[in-house]
C-alpha cells in the first residue's frame, strides 16, 4: 500500500523479562562475573528485544534505549559530558567508570538521582561545571546500532534531546568557577549532538528520535525560544529527526512545534487525547506525525477498535506520514505478560505489557493499512477483553458504587477544629513536651522475612506464623519500653511492602509475579494493579494493633497507608478518573480507621509519602489534584472522635509549594523527613505557621551510622527556632525497616536523651542556645 502508515515504539524496557540485566549487573558489581559476561548479557537482551519488535511487525527497532544503568547517564557518556569531578577521560570511559559515576566510590559521592518527570523511574542528574566539555565520549551507541543492523534490522536511534538534557541538569560550581547559566552551554551541547548525528547519518541511519519531554511542562520563554535555533542547527546535517513529546499534552507549544525544522513530531495521545485537532490545523505538509495511542504508562490491553476509529481520519489526512506508537517509551511497563503464570485467565486477559503492546501497535497499523482481516483475531480478542472488563462483576461492586454516590453525605472534616481536639487529646494521652515516636517499621530481620516467605509458600501454618510475628511485636514493644519512647509503634513485621500489604487485603487489587519495572539502576519495583472497585471485606490491621496495644500502657499508633500513596504506587484503572479510585480507597481506609478507634487504638497514622509525587506536570493542573488528594485523605481520617489523634507521614519530597494543602489535610500530627536537609525543609512550615503538631525527622535512616545526642539536640534547637514548642515532636526521618537492631537501639536511645535534655532546658527556663549555622 502506497500510503501505508508505519509502526514504531519510543523505547523498550531494557531490564529483561526476568530482570536479567539487574542480576548480571549486580553480579559484575560483586565481582562474581567479568566484563565479558556482562557484555554478553547486554547483547543477548538487546537482540531479544529487537527480535520482539521486528517479529511484532514494527517498521523500526529501537536503538539507544538500552542503558547499563540509566539513559541520561548514557547520553552524557555519549557526548563526553560526564561529571568532571571523577577525573575520568570521557573518551576512554570504561563500564566500571560508568558504574562509579552512578554509584560513587569511597572518594566520590555518586551522581544525584531524581525522578524522571512524573514517573517512578529515576535518572542521574547531569552535573554542569565550567570545565565540562562536550567533546565526544564512548562509541556504545554506534556499536549497538551496528549490532542491530548486522542482525538485519532497520533501526531508529533514540536520544535524550539537548534541551531536556540541559533542563534536567544542575549547575555545580566548584572553586574558581565563574557563574553561568545552563543555556550558556547550549552551543557546546549542539556541537556535540551535531557530531553524533553526523556519525549516525554516515552509518546509514535514516531516522533519529529526539526526546524532548520538557515540552510537556510549562516552559519559561528562554527555554521555549531555544528550540528553534537548536533544531535548526541539528537538522542541518543529520538523519531525519522525529521530535518526541510525551507525558502530557503540548497544546501551548503547537505553533512552536509546527515551526521546528524536524521531519516529524510524536504526540502522547493518551495523556493528551484532546490536543490532536488543534495540532493538525496548519500541520506542515510532508511531516510525520507519530500518534502515541497505546498507553505506555499503564498495563491495560488497548481498545483496538477505538484506536482505529481515532486514527482513521488521521490516516486519510496524512497517509504514510502517520506513524502508530505507544504514548511514551515502554520503559514504564513490565516486559512480557507471558511470564504471568499465577494470574487468573480473566485478569490476564485484560492486561498488556511491553511485548503485547508492540503487537497492539502493529495490529492498529495493519488495520489502518487495509489489512483489517489479517488482524481480525487480534481485534476480536481485544474487543472481547474490553467488553469483559466493562461488565465484569469483579470490577463493578454495587456496594462501593452506592457508597461513593452518597459520599457527599459523609463529612470530610473532623467534628471540631484542631485547637479543640488537641486539648482533648492531651487530656487523654498526657504526653510530655517534645514527645518521641517512630515512623512505623522496625528492622526487618532475616528471621521475619523468612517467616513471611515460609507462610506464603505454605511451609508454616497460620498459627505458627502469627506466633512468630507476635514474638516480634513483643520484642519491639519491649525495646521501646527500654528505650523510653513516648508513643509506640508495633513495628510492621507482617508487612512486606506498605502498598502490597493493604492491596492484598482489599478487593479490586491484582498482583503480578514478574511485572517488574525499572526504578533506578538495577533496582526494580513490581507495582500492584487496581482493576476494580476497591472494597474492604474485613478489618486489615485491627488484630495486630489491638495485640500490640495490649502489651503496653503507652499509646500504640495504628498504622495505615493513605489513599494517595495506595494509588500512586500502583498501576491504576483507566476506566474511571484517578480521583474516583482514590475516594474508593479512602472509604475503605475510613472504615479501618473507625474500626481501630473502636478497638481502643487512640492514635492512627495514615502514611502519605507519595502525596507530593502525584502532582501533575503542569502547575495549572495542581489545584484539581490537590483538592481531591486532600479530600481523599480527609475522608479516610475524619470518622473519629476528637480525642483520637490522627497522624500522617511524608518524606523525601519538597513540601514548601504545597503547604496550604498539607495543612488542609488537618492531621493532628505530621511527621516529615528533614534531617537530610539539616532541618531546612522545616523552614517552610515555620514561615507558613503550620497550625498542627509536627515531628521533623532528627536523623537519617539510610545509614547505619549512630547519630550523637548533640547532633540531634542541634537539629531540635534549630526546629524550636521555627516551630512553637507545644507543636514539636521528636522522631527519625522515616521507617527503620532497612536498618539493623544494634544501630537502631543506640540511635533511638540517643534520640530520647536529646528530647529529655531539651525538656530539661525548657523546664529550667533556660533559653535555648541559638543553633550554630
Ligand atoms: N510506616 C512506614 C514505615 O515506617 C512508612 C514508610 C515510608 O514513609 N515510605 O516503614
Ligand atoms: Zn517515610
UniProtKB/TrEMBL annotation:
Which parts of the chain span the membrane according to its record? none
Name its pathway.
Answer: Amino-acid biosynthesis; L-methionine biosynthesis via de novo pathway; L-methionine from L-homocysteine (MetE route): step 1/1
Question: Binding positions for Zn(2+) 1?
Answer: 649, 651, 673, 734
Ranges where the Cobalamin-independent methionine synthase MetE N-terminal domain occurs: 7-317
Per the annotation, how and in what number is the cofactor bound?
A: Binds 1 zinc ion per subunit.
Q: Per its Swiss-Prot or TrEMBL entry, what cofactor is needed?
A: Zn(2+)
Keywords in alphabetical order, please. Amino-acid biosynthesis, Metal-binding, Methionine biosynthesis, Methyltransferase, Repeat, Transferase, Zinc
Name of protein: 5-methyltetrahydropteroyltriglutamate--homocysteine methyltransferase
Q: Which organism is it from?
A: Herminiimonas arsenicoxydans
Provide the gene name from the record.
metE
